[in-house]
Design brief:
- It is a single chain.
- Helix 1 packs across helix 7 and helix 2 runs parallel beside helix 3.
- The chain has a seven-stranded parallel β-sheet with strand order 3-2-1-4-5-6-7, with helices on both faces.
- 44% of the residues lie in helices and 16% in strands.
- It has a single domain, classed as 3-Layer(aba) Sandwich (Rossmann fold).
- It is built from eight helices and seven strands.
């Protein structure tokens, strides 16, 4: 049952891979991002917006939903502000929480009327393996853990309406954002790759495959879950203690 899918941060990276995969499956894409995609998908609607701005986000969501019944949502937009317990600032916390938690809350509220009316909805939020804890990501890991908690609560509240809510937690994925924060020649980056059981970085398409599966109308008995797309890292580390 193809339909409209709203994806935040779908101008590039994981969000773009999700948009491309879902378009291939016949869905129509609404992209909210500061950056226009390099190549528009068939029927794609791009709404330029700084999702870090609450008022601008509200206006963009009003435009997106004005003439469309959008019943699928991918909360993808996010930002990383590396920092330790000693170096992370309140400004870092506010910026990361705004994109990671406030923006998804706004998106869900905006789309719920159409989902409830259709008695069908799919919400997938992009978390991170960092939600389990990651050095030098104190703010980022906290925000992603919060997103997982929010997702589980949505799952409980919205299940009677035919709406599912799940999260996908990528491990190391070779996006522009990853490479900006993890230089290829860094010993730390090499150690990350070596620690992945499949011995490679993930690709945005790996995450898109998981997202597409959870958005499928046949996935109605899967809700409140976190699926880690991490090349086996989570299992390996869990068994290393």
């Amino acid at each position: 049952m193809p339909g409209w899918v709203l994806i935040t941060g779908a101008g590039r990276g994981i969000g773009r891979a999700c948009a491309e995969r879902l378009s291939q499956e016949g869905h129509a894409i609404v992209t909210l991002d500061r950056h226009a995609p390099e190549r528009a998908l068939p029927g794609e609607v791009f709404i330029p917006v700084d999702l870090a701005d609450e008022a601008a986000t509200s206006a963009a969501l009003a435009e997106a939903t004005r003439d469309r019944a959008i019943t699928r949502l991918v909360n993808n937009v996010g930002t990383v502000r590396p920092g330790s317990a000693e170096s992370a600032t309140t400004a870092d916390l506010e910026a990361v929480v705004s994109l990671t938690l406030r923006c998804p809350m706004q998106c869900v509220r905006a789309l719920l009327p159409a989902m409830k009316s259709a008695r069908f909805g799919r919400i997938v939020s992009i978390s991170s393996r960092a939600a389990l804890g990651k050095e030098l990501r104190v703010v980022y890991s906290a925000a992603k853990a919060g997103l997982e908690g929010m997702t589980k609560t949505w799952a409980l509240e919205l299940a009677p309406h035919g709406i599912t809510a799940n999260a996908v937690g990528p491990g190391p994925i070779g996006t522009e954002l990853f490479h900006r924060n993890n230089p290829a020649d860094s010993p730390r980056t090499r150690a990350i790759v070596e620690a992945i059981p499949v011995k490679r970085l993930g690709a945005p398409e790996d995450v898109a495959h998981a997202v597409a599966s959870l958005l499928d109308e046949r996935a109605g008995f899967i809700t409140g879950q976190v699926l880690y797309v991490c090349g086996g890292m989570t299992v390996g580390n869990a068994g290393a203690g």
